[in-house]
Design a protein that fits this description.
Blueprint: H1 5-14, E1 23-26, H2 35-48, E2 61-66, H3 71-76, H4 85-93, E3 100-104, E4 107-110, H5 119-129, H6 133-148, E5 152-157, H7 162-171, E6 174-179, H8 183-200, E7 206-215, H9 220-233, E8 246-247, H10 250-258, H11 263-284, H12 296-299, H13 306-328
Helix pairs in contact: 2-13, 4-6, 6-7, 11-13
Length: 333
């Protein structure tokens, strides 16, 4: 029997693994727009959260680092990982994905890294060699999720690897798109929109919205105009820009990567550093010179990263609300 296009799409959506129902891809075809930072920070916020009213003492979260640069693995979480080796063997041979457990309490990781740069060559020859990259990745990730039962899965994608991005769009249930407010970043959103629409023909992926990253919170008129422009760009998709924007904080950005901290951890670290700094001043006098690399005055530039951490916390809450709304509205999964 030959299925029509609508019937074929419905059949493919029915075959979508239920274990991947809360898999969120963070993507933009432009680099440097906050994909890794948002993935790691939101994952950390959700994993740290507890909801006693719902009886949730832990929200286990899985990060999938699908970026050859491995920023989420190396820079954000401080994990050496396997440089993407397990990820590549899954794509090529259908081998099980290796998971680094508890990189933070309740937070697991599938490591990325430079070995993922081979994906372009693999996909170019996949059809001739009988390799189904999408099926291999979908089955591998579904097996991990069935075992770990994560509350949420966040996938960090690289900016330039189109074949891998297309595969991720086929396996993810939801999509969020970070962007800066410059023309190049917004063009990346438009390019991704075309790939998203193609993926929608064969998968149940749903766009949840666009997130403005690295913005000046005082530029209210400019921010409102960019949000309006994004909503116009998203018109007809059923999605809107996220009202929460991630502010620019250069000192915090340096500390987060240099010390491999998540935003909530940086808030705690700066508070502890402040207490230690006061104690040292009381002991040694106000004009004490920093003694070396073990001195927290040298290691941390941030003085108040709490507003940035609050942005990420608000974004995490809004993301979960939009996922819940999509589930309530009737998902094909």
């Amino acid at each position: 029997m030959v299925l029509g296009k609508a019937e074929q799409m419905e059949a493919e959506q029915r075959a979508y693994p239920a274990a991947l129902r809360r898999t969120v891809l963070v993507a933009n075809q432009k680099g440097g727009v906050g994909k890794s930072s948002i993935t790691s920070a939101v994952a950390g916020m959700v994993a740290r959260a507890a909801d006693s009213s719902a009886g949730i003492s832990e929200r286990r979260v899985l990060i999938v680092d699908a970026d050859p640069q491995g920023n989420a693995t190396f820079s954000d979480l401080g994990v050496q990982g396997d440089k993407g080796r397990s990820f590549m063997t899954t794509l090529q041979y259908g081998e099980p994905l290796e998971v680094v457990r508890d990189v933070r309490p309740g937070l697991d990781l599938i490591a990325g890294g430079p070995m993922l740069a081979q994906v372009g060559g693999l996909t170019a020859t996949a059809a001739n060699s009988g390799i189904d990259v999408v099926a291999n990745l979908m089955n591998g990730l579904a097996a991990v999720c069935a075992e770990l039962n994560p509350f949420l899965v966040l996938i960090d994608s690289g900016p330039g690897d189109a074949p891998l991005l297309d595969a991720l769009l086929r396996i993810a249930r939801f999509l969020i798109v970070p962007t800066r407010d410059d023309d190049a970043s917004l063009s990346g959103v438009e390019l991704l929109a075309l790939r998203y629409l193609r993926a929608r023909q064969a998968s149940p992926i749903e766009l949840l919205g666009v997130v403005l990253f690295d913005v000046n919170p005082r530029a209210t008129a400019r921010n409102a105009q960019v949000i309006a422009d994004l909503d116009a760009l998203l018109d007809g998709s059923g999605a809107t820009a996220f009202p929460t924007m991630i502010r620019s904080d250069r000192a915090a950005a340096l500390d987060l990567r240099a010390a491999h901290l998540l935003p909530g951890e940086l808030v705690e670290a700066t508070r502890n550093a402040g207490k230690e700094r006061l104690a040292r001043l009381r002991r040694n006098g106000r004009h004490r010179v920093a003694s070396g690399p073990d001195d927290l005055d040298v290691r941390l530039w941030s003085r108040d990263p709490a507003p940035l951490a609050n942005d990420y916390q608000d974004l995490a809450k809004e993301l979960l609300r939009r996922i819940a709304a999509a589930e309530q509205n009737g998902s094909p999964v």
